[in-house]
Fold each of these.
Amino acid sequence: MAIHIDERAGLFHLQGKDVSYVMQVVDGYPVHLYWGKKLRADGNLQDMPGLPKHRNLDQMPQEYPQYGSGDFRSPAYQVQLEDGSRITELVYQGYRIIPGKPRLEGLPATYAEADDEAETLEITLADAYSGLRVALLYTVFKDSNAIARSARLINSGSGRLKLLRALSMSVDMDIPDYEAVYLAGAWGREAHLQRRPIGPGGTRIESRRGMSGHQLNPFLALAEPGADEDRGEVYGFSFVYSGNFLAQAEVDSMRKVRVQVGINPFDFCWLLMPGESFQTPETVMVYSDNGLGGMSRTYHKLYRTRLCRGVYRDQVRPILVNNWEATYFQFTAGKLVSIAKAGAELGIELFVLDDGWFGKRNDDTTSLGDWVVNRDKLPDGLEGLAERINRLGLKFGIWVEPEMVSPDSDLYRAHPDWCLHVEGRRRTLARTQLVLDMSRPDVREHIYGMLSAIFRSVPVAYVKWDMNRSLTEIGSAAAPPERQGEIAHRHMLGVYELMERLTGEFPHILFESCSSGGGRFDPGMLYYMPQTWTSDNTDAVERLKIQYGTSLVYPASAIGAHVSAVPNHQVGRVTPLKMRGDVAMSGNFGYELDLTKFTDEEKEEVKRQVALYKSIRPIVQQGELYRLLSPFEGNETAWMFVTEDRSEALLFYFKVLAEPHMPKKRLRLKGLDPQRDYAVEGFGTFGGDRLMHAGLAFQVPPGDHFSLVVRLRDAAGGKG
Ligand code: DGJ
């Protein structure tokens, strides 16, 4: 890793592990020349092919383009001056190199643990007339093919500036025939993989919901036509933010592609007073010439080790049982303890008390905001329950939804102006609840007080932090009229501040984020909480797609996956316990059903599942993922986890519907060491080369919903 600068030529060459990113200052503008496979750094970068023939702005490949002076493509930023004008011109001022990676104040971001892990280039641009300055930040990592980009907009003039648009990054490339790959879905159908040519015009992936959302993940990749899991060029853009976002690819008449990512300019404006600055969230850009699989592995490693934080970052995660699908709101302390007791007998390590333990919450119409235990349900309080659970040998975890308030709550009755709202307008309910105005410090302080009191007095080892609705009527009673356009982002910053405070003060607690399942499965959340509840849809067949899609960006350690009852509560499907277990074991494993209802035979099977997961979880949670067969392409799914030293691996294979008269299945494995021999459990010992090229053969028995987990170990016991 290094940043090479040729000051005379105005050339900047960023080198990561196997990646180069090259820019040049041309006519005062930072121009994009190259992003791809690593180039040498010995001065062969003159007259790069990226340089345009005509030096008009509309054809110049730029790094942070402006609006209004001849570039008719989408700008990276737009600022309104006090005189009402919206034209600015950013001209190169200088640069500095910062060892490591500076923190982005108040925002989630990837980080470096030591200064020699990463290097950051800051390029400064300025508009002489308005006093607007922009610092473009680029971080390269020594051991990664990721580059993190963000921008800081500074008002160094004497007038007020109104930011109408402030994206995190913009890049112009020559890849008009590439395909957009992204994740789309809905509640219960998250992260379905999409792929289509970008073509002339625009591809917009965005959220206007005040949260990242189930509908579109804050991620976009551009893949070379024909690029698959293993081959071909892919450019990934992942936005480290949980609110309104925009990720777009625009193909212009000159067949250039402009890719931009940032806070959605829709309904955004921000008043920047003299002396103030605005830091955008960051976009993590990954280059892979090993297809989508290579891109995913880069994101997984970076996000698992340099985005996630806390004591659980490097620890295996406990196997949990959650009572939601077992009881919903109707439970007694005795019922919960009986589930925990059954869990203890099966080897489960953590009991999670879900929604319904506080206020008068017997359904979803009431009590959010009243974080006081319901003594009718839990006469000995949370303390009493936690103590009983702990005595069984299980840790105790609890559900909260801190960002919300029910109109039927003491909190709302006392502070009706504490929710997001616009005076005189309807307050739109969703799931009978409103969103607390987290842009207000008094609201954050109150919620912090209630939650921290619980975390201090009850032996809480795990928190499921839920968030069950999108934002509407985004306005704050505490902000002046000219700042109302800031509330969506200020709310998000407030949520982050609350999370930072609570996760920082209670480092021993494992936090899992949730938003009606995967409504906020984004890198912003992973910075505070190292795992996310992937979907409310727990059906094993549906989960194949949801988990496969989610794995495009996010590591298995982040992917919460539970075995639930059949018929499945979301889709009514009946699948075997084995398949439900094998699917859930491909992520962060747990159970979400009434364990007391298992037959003796099922109990034995669950004991085996729990024991197996305990022995394989370091490989699943910390290994490298290789996707073999896609559920989006057919009836079969397969993936592998391989330890970094390639001494151990796991193969997961699933076949949803049986087919008659089928030959043996031959599956070519991936990620192994061709030079080593592997003991393949249940099969024998084979060379890594043979397993990858000739494959592993097995007969799929008759019957729907077949699944197989195979463990591979270096036959010589070597650790590489
Ligand atoms: C939505 C979550 O995704 C579920 O797992 C559950 O916690 C419910 N909320 C509780 O209301």
Note: The chain is about 20% helix and 30% strand.
Amino acid sequence: MESHNNNPIPADGEAIQVRAGKFSVPDNPIIPFIEGDGTGPDIWKAARTVFDAAVKQAYGGRRHVAWYEVYAGEKAHNRFNDWLPQGTLDAMRQFHIAIKGPLTTPVGGGIRSLNVALRQLLDLYVCLRPVRYYPGVPSPMKNPELLDVVIFRENTEDVYAGIEWRQGTPEARKVIDFLNLEMGKNIRADSGIGIKPISVGGSKRLIRRAIQYALENGRRSVTLVHKGNIMKFTEGAFRDWGYELVKEEFSDVCVTEAEAGTGVPPGKVLVQDRIADSMFQQVLLRPGEYHVIATTNLNGDYLSDACAAQVGGLGMAPSANIGDEYAVFEATHGTAPKYAGQDVVNPSSVILCGSMMFHFMGWKEVSRLIETGISETIRQKRVTYDLHRLMEGAVKVKTSEFAAAIVGNMALPAAA
Ligand code: NAP
């Protein structure tokens, strides 16, 4: 029997196939999961209950997921003395779509972050963060429901590429000498140095995915967010390459702000750009004008957390890391180790990751059921401790009870 990490592959499932960037999903896909460290097992148990119930309700027995446990983080370290075993990567490559809970970040040693390692090894170049409001969640905004954006953050380049040299090292000195002596710059000798690579290929493939998403999901605009007024050949180039891509590949379905003048022709997606600092104001002051955002790595990191905070849902926000061959859906919060095993934490982030995953797989009915179940449960104010302490008149429930309430509240909207 075939296995990874000594764990046999489920016999009742089939692998998802990917051809020319298209994911083809059988009725019984094998989906690897990493339950995660700390509170990960509590959360995964609750999330899986919700996922299985939603699939069953949507399709009867016609479709099901063959879940397949793979290991990373502390659990992998304890079992295999390896934070990210080769078997886990092999399984992710074989089955293409995976979901994971939070992982302990190893302190010291070779791996800086398991999440970053996975993104790099599988070339998951899009970090996808949808941000929307769930009625009832406490928010600092007067009208949090006006913000409904999907953020495409470039995931592999920029200052996150990890190309940097510590101040005072021979390497830093060598780079400074090169820049000062050969390139005519004037960098202080006592500087640390970091490099910000932004490529045309990396930018265009990210922006392409954002535009395709807007077209497929009826979103009215794509906004390129950059700091191009200052960093002209990286951030400014990101914007220019975005507009170039629109001309090359999307001129029949998109218009740019300059072309649109006062109105966007019906059915076309508006492509516009905003400077990053002004964008932070825009999402506060005119949130309804933004639908899909495509941006570089560092801007995207800041902007996605700022937007999530606006809807009161930093702890609930889901995310996905997507490439041409693989997609990994992951919680945005950490392992919250002090609550491990207590069945108290909020499982919404992983549950909403699952909703995104089913949407990505084309199982949109499942995604809608999960969204309805979670919205309704929060509207009823049956919430875990974290939301309970912020919501007046709420009933505090355990992680498992929250999942059971979601299952009880699932119903397909009439239009589905
Ligand atoms: P954390 O695990 O996110 O926890 C910080 C605080 O956030 C918790 O004490 C809790 O606040 C709240 N919280 C987090 N998840 C929650 C949930 N599901 N439900 C309710 N409240 C939740 O951050 P950390 O303590 O800085 O990090 C712990 C470990 O996680 C570290 O090893 C870190 O590297 C790792 N980490 C992993 C990821 C990832 O895998 N994606 C992300 C971030 C951090 P209260 O105590 O106030 O209730």
Note: The pocket of NAP is lined by residues 102-105, 115, 315, 330-331, 333-337, 345-346, 386 (CB under 6 Å).
